[in-house]
Amino acid sequence: MSTANQTSILFPIFTGENYDFWSIKMKTYCMSQDLWDIVDSGFNNPENPTVEQLRQLKKDQQKDAKALFALQQALDDTIFPRIMGATTSKEA
Description:
about 90 residues; mainly alpha; elongated
């Protein structure tokens, strides 16, 4: 029986101090995972989308969920309530 190789990503945790350092580290992480464009610009939800636009929207939503998850994981529990209502990574 083979076991999957799992790597744990240790996010830098923002505790309320050294925001400048934390934000640089998180931006670099997001860039390394091809998520920064979603965090920085968000994504469009077109009206009456074509099939191709629906495919792209699904990809964008998945990227956004990954980025939002990373941001949520990178916050101390005392800071998390500030973004817990955010539904997109850009909003967070």
